[in-house]
Write a structure and sequence with these properties.
Helix content of chain A: 25-40%
Strand order of the largest sheet of chain A: 6-7-8-3-9-10
Number of helices of chain A: 9
Shape of chain A: globular
Number of strands of chain B: 4
Radius of gyration of chain B: 32 Å
Strand content of chain A: 25-35%
Largest sheet of chain A: 6 strands, mixed
Oligomer: heterodimer
C-alpha cells in the first residue's frame, strides 16, 4: 500500500546550509499492518511522514500510496490518507460534530455519508455525550478522540500517525493505541512513528529504525531480535545506533 | 478551483471569527455601544460645563475705575458682571481663578476722549479658562457698545449721520447647498475613517486565521484535505474581506450614532443634509471593494508568512502605520493628487472618496484607482497562495 524508494529530503537553510533530513529511505507498508518508524527526536520521522502525506515534496526518490504518486497525484493521495500528529490542533470554537462534518466536507464526502459516518465513529469512539460541546471545553482525551475522528471521517485506507501519543496521559495514550489496533483489524495500512520503544514493541508488525535521516534496520520485532545480541528493543536500538555511528 | 470548497473555508473562518468574543467586542460592543455612550457622555459634560460657565457671573477688577466713571457704570449695568475694587495682587487672583479678567483704564482716559484721541484700554484674561474667555467676551461687547455711543455723539457734533461710517456693505452669500456642505464636511474626515476601519477590522481576523492556524497546529489538517492551496487562501481572504467590510460599516454607523448623540446633547446639529445619489454610492462601493480586497490580501499574505501571531502582529504594525500616514496625508487640506499618484494604493482611494463625497466624478481617477488596487490585491493574493505552497514557510519553526 505504501512504497517508499530512495526517499531523500534535503533542506536548504540560509544560515545552516544544506541539511539532509532523510537519506535514501526504502520501505514498504502493507494493508492490515502497522509499520513503525522508530527513532529519536530529529531522526527524520516527521519529515518522512509529511512527504507521505503530500505536505512536503521529496528532493529525490519515489513514494507511492495506494497506487498513487505523492508528487504527481497529490490530490488522489490525500483522498487515501488520514493524517494525525501530536502537533495537529483542533478548532477551539467548534464542536466535535461541526469539526468532523467540516473535515468530511473538505474531503469531498456527500452529506448523507458524512452523517452516517459521524454516527458510526462517534459511537465507536464513545464521543456521543460531548459531540456538541465546544472543543475548548474538552479534556485532552476527548480532544485526541476528536482528532482521530477527524482523520478517519473519509474512511481512508491508509493512516499516517506521527507520534500520536506524545503529551498524552497514560490512560488516553492506551485508548489511542487500542483504536490504532482496531484500525489495523479493519484492514487499514498504518504507518506509525514513535520514539517510545514499548509502544513500538506492542503495536508494530514491522519496525524501521531511523537515525539521523538514515534507515539503519527494519524487520519484525522477531527479526530485529534475531539479528541482535539483545532481547530488548531499547537495547537493540542503542546497539544499532552505536554501530551506525562507528 | 471549486467555489464550493472556497465557500466551505469562508464559512468555517467566518463562524470561527464570529464565535470569538474579541470579535464581538471589537465589531459590535465598541462601535455600537461604547462609542455612542462615550460621545454622549462627552457631549453631556461639555454642555454641563458650558452652561455653568455661561450662567456664572464674571468677576472682574477695574484698575483705574476712577478715570472712567461712565464706562464703569456701563459695566455695572450688565447683570452678569461683578466689579471688584483693586486691592493687593490682582494678577495672582486672575491666575488663581478668583477673578476672570482685569480691565486697565489709563489716567488720561477722560482727557483723550475729550481730545478725540485714541484711548488704549488693556484687558487681561486667561485664555485657557472658559470662564475667563466668557468674561472677555462680555467686556468686549460692553466696550463696543460704549465705543459706538461715543462715535454717535461725535458724529452728531459734526452734524453727520450714522451711515457716514458705512460707505460699503459686502453681503456674502454661500451658494453651496446643504448637501454640498455636508459632503465637504464628510470628505474631510470620512476617507481617513474608512481606511482605518477597514484595516483595523481586517487585522485581527487575518492574523488569527493564518498565523493563528499555524500556531495552533490546525494548518496541517487543511493541507492534507481535498481543498487546494488557492481555494484555502481565497476562502480565508474572502472571510477577512467580509469581516473587514462589516466592521467598517458597523464602525461608521457607530461613529455616526456617537457623533449625532454627542452633538445633539451638546447643542444640536443644524444644516446636515445627506445628498449622496445612488450613482455615487455605487461608485463609492466600486472604490471600496478593491481597497477592502487589497487590505485583506496583504494582511493574509503577511499572516501566512509569519511563524506565529506575535510575529504577524509585529510585521503588520509598520503596514498599519503606513496606512495611517497615507490616511493623514489624504485629510490634509489643499493637497491634490495628479495622474500617476492615483496608482499609490490607499492614498488613491481616499482621494477618490473625497471627490465623490464632494459630488465630483472623475472617471480617469476612479478607473486608475480601481485598476491599481485590484492589481495589487491580485498580486498579494498570488503571493499569499505561493507562500502557502512553500513548505519552508508553512513548517518554519
Amino acid at each position: 500500500m505504501i512504497q517508499v524508494e530512495g526517499l531523500t529530503k534535503i533542506f536548504n537553510d540560509k544560515k545552516r546550509g544544506k541539511k539532509v533530513a532523510v537519506n535514501h529511505l526504502n520501505f514498504n507498508c502493507r494493508k492490515g499492518k502497522i509499520f513503525g518508524l522508530l527513532g529519536p527526536n530529529g531522526a527524520g520521522k516527521t519529515t518522512t511522514l509529511r512527504i507521505l502525506a503530500t505536505m512536503m515534496l521529496p528532493t529525490k526518490g519515489k513514494v507511492i500510496v495506494n497506487g498513487c504518486d505523492v508528487v504527481k497525484e497529490a490530490s488522489k493521495v490525500r483522498r487515501q490518507i488520514g493524517f494525525l500528529s501530536s502537533e495537529t490542533g483542533l478548532y477551539d470554537r467548534f464542536t466535535p460534530r461541526e469539526t468532523v462534518k467540516f473535515f468530511g466536507r473538505i474531503n469531498g464526502i456527500e452529506e448523507k455519508i458524512i452523517e452516517k459516518r459521524i454516527a458510526e465513529i462517534f459511537h465507536n469512539l464513545d464521543m456521543e455525550n460531548f459531540q456538541d460541546v465546544r472543543v475548548n471545553k474538552l479534556s485532552t482525551g476527548m480532544k485526541q478522540k476528536l482528532s482521530i475522528a477527524r482523520s478517519i471521517i473519509h474512511d481512508p485506507p491508509v493512516l499516517i500517525l506521527d507520534e500520536p501519543t506524545v503529551g498524552l496521559d497514560i490512560i488516553t495514550a492506551r485508548t489511542v493505541i487500542e483504536y490504532v489496533k482496531s484500525f489495523r483489524d479493519q484492514g487499514k495500512c498504518i504507518i506509525y512513528s514513535t520514539h517510545i520503544m514499548r509502544e513500538a514493541e506492542k503495536l508494530c508488525d514491522m519496525i524501521a529504525i531511523i537515525h539521523q535521516g538514515n534507515l539503519i534496520a527494519q524487520g519484525t520485532l522477531k527479526e530485529l531480535k534475531k539479528n541482535s545480541s539483545f532481547d530488548d528493543l531499547e537495547e537493540i536500538f542503542f546497539e544499532l545506533i552505536n554501530q551506525g555511528e562507528n | 478551483m471549486s467555489w464550493k470548497n472556497i465557500k466551505l473555508i469562508f464559512i468555517k473562518e467566518l463562524l470561527g471569527t464570529i464565535r470569538d468574543r474579541r470579535t464581538i467586542i471589537a465589531m459590535i460592543i465598541i462601535p455600537l455601544i461604547f462609542y455612542p455612550l462615550l460621545f454622549a457622555g462627552i457631549g453631556y459634560f461639555s454642555k454641563l460645563g458650558s452652561i455653568k460657565s455661561e450662567e456664572a457671573n464674571s468677576k472682574i477688577i477695574i484698575d483705574g475705575a476712577e478715570f472712567a466713571p461712565q464706562l464703569v457704570n456701563y459695566l455695572r449695568e450688565y447683570e452678569k458682571i461683578e466689579i471688584f475694587i483693586l486691592e493687593g495682587d490682582s494678577p495672582a487672583k486672575l491666575q488663581n481663578g478668583d477673578i476672570q479678567a482685569i480691565l486697565v483704564i489709563p489716567p488720561d482716559f477722560k482727557y483723550k476722549i475729550e481730545q478725540e484721541e485714541p484711548n488704549k484700554l488693556i484687558l487681561k484674561y486667561d485664555d485657557t479658562e472658559a470662564k475667563s474667555r466668557i468674561a472677555k467676551q462680555r467686556i468686549n461687547q460692553i466696550i463696543e457698545k460704549y465705543k459706538d455711543e461715543i462715535l454717535i455723539q461725535r458724529l452728531s457734533r459734526l452734524d453727520l449721520k450714522e451711515e457716514f461710517l458705512t460707505p460699503l456693505i459686502l453681503q456674502e452669500e454661500n451658494t453651496a447647498t446643504a448637501e454640498k456642505m455636508t459632503g465637504s464636511f464628510l470628505s474631510a474626515l470620512l476617507p481617513y475613517l474608512i481606511i482605518i476601519l477597514i484595516f483595523t477590522g481586517a487585522m485581527h481576523t487575518a492574523v488569527d486565521i493564518t498565523a493563528g492556524e499555524k500556531e495552533r497546529g490546525t494548518i496541517a489538517t487543511l493541507l492534507v484535505s481535498q481543498i487546494s492551496r488557492l481555494e484555502i487562501v481565497l476562502g480565508k481572504c474572502f472571510a477577512v474581506m467580509f469581516i473587514s467590510f462589516t466592521s467598517m460599516a458597523l464602525g461608521l454607523f457607530g461613529l455616526t450614532l456617537a457623533f449625532l448623540s454627542g452633538a445633539s446633547i451638546a447643542g444640536g446639529i443644524e444644516g446636515v443634509k445627506f445628498g449622496i445619489s445612488v450613482n455615487t454610492i455605487f461608485l463609492l462601493f466600486l472604490i471600496l471593494f478593491p481597497l477592502v480586497g487589497l487590505a485583506s490580501a496583504v494582511l493574509v499574505m503577511v499572516g501566512i508568512f509569519a511563524r506565529n501571531i506575535r510575529e504577524a502582529s509585529s510585521y503588520i504594525t509598520p503596514i498599519y502605520m503606513l496606512t495611517i500616514f497615507l490616511g493623514i496625508i489624504s485629510i490634509s487640506q489643499g493637497m491634490e493628487l495628479t495622474g500617476k499618484m492615483f496608482l499609490v494604493p490607499v492614498l488613491n482611494s481616499s482621494f477618490v472618496f473625497k471627490e465623490l463625497l464632494m459630488g465630483k466624478i472623475y472617471w480617469n481617477h476612479i478607473l486608475t484607482t480601481f485598476s491599481a488596487n485590484m492589481v495589487i490585491a491580485g498580486l498579494a493574493l498570488l503571493g499569499a497562495t505561493r507562500l502557502f505552497s512553500k513548505e519552508e514557510v508553512l513548517f518554519r519553526s
